Amino acid sequence: MKKVFSGIQPSGVIHLGNYLGAIKQWVELQDEADQAVFCIVDLHAITVPQDPKTLKQNILSVAALYLAAGIDPNKSIIFVQSSRPEHAELAWILNTVTKMGELSRMTQFKDKSQKTSIESASVGLFDYPVLMAADILLYGTTHVPVGEDQKQHVELARDLALRFNSRYGTTFTVPEPLIRRESARIMGLDDPAKKMSKSAQSALNYIAILDDAETIANKIKRAVTDSESEIKVGAEKPAITNLLNIFAEVSDQSVAEIEQEFQGKNYGQFKKSLAEAIVAYLKPIQEKYDKIIQDEDSLKKILEDGSRRAKILAEKTLLDVKEKIGLGL
Ligand code: ADP
Ligand code: TRP
Q1: Rounded distance from Cα 103 to ligand 1 centre (Å)
Q2: Considering the entire predicted model, what is its pTM?
Q3: 27-40: pLDDT as tens digits
């Protein structure tokens, strides 16, 4: 049985990294999986401060993007994390089998807490990977399609599942990460040493899925490049390598074919074609999104229906967990 679970935080604009690293493979997986569950993880989003109004809008916006990208509610369960109390409940229980040391080693916590300081980072931010483990383990998940940055978190979910199973008897399926090699780590346009991210300081870091043609052209034009003008991948050319990878992902061409096409041409010509390719790639998604977001009632119905279907699966797991531990009457 192939059971897939993944999620994205409604904490800002969804960008090309999210799309190529995660959502794109979800769409392919929903056809081959026996169960596919895609969540809008709002409880994760609030581990850093969020404006309540914006958060609410972002939840619907991310849901609309899932649908626009091709996640089909007839094939997949789509729901909002906070609509299912089982997530927070299982996270609490998993907290009791998680070690402080394990969470202290999570690189995302180290990165995110560095932005303020450990002293003022929320306990929720520290505990974030345990809630993620609960998301995954509630649904008997076998495969977790994510970008490279989430690998360590999925490994923690594996460790917790194994530890719980050995302590209380087999309860959880042990999940594994599914990471697409080609798009595992799309880098920032303004800094190819860091991944493209929603929480980047500057909007020049990312291409948002909903950016218009002019914005995309401008961002690509201003994207940093490397010394020497050759358009070729290489360890010493991280910026062009990243742009070539993006180009290959949004066109039907391989990196080698694109290198060939731009042999002897300059960065300006290359960037112009790249921007056009991205615009063409995103256009159908944007058109669908515009329609879906206008019909808020239908969108909410899909999410409510998803939540009902998630409930059946989540409740069953949680009941089993409580029984194994000896909680309740
Ligand atoms: P962000 O880091 O931008 O806030 P999330 O943490 O919500 O994005 O990530 C949602 C999904 O998108 C995860 O599966 C994550 O691994 C993937 N992802 C995020 N950024 C990138 C990137 N730059 N390249 C590839 N995948 C990414
Ligand atoms: N932590 C993930 C991210 O920031 C989002 C997430 C939460 C997730 N729960 C999940 C991803 C469960 C996969 C499975 O990208």
Answers
A1: 20
A2: 0.94
A3: 999 999 999 999 99
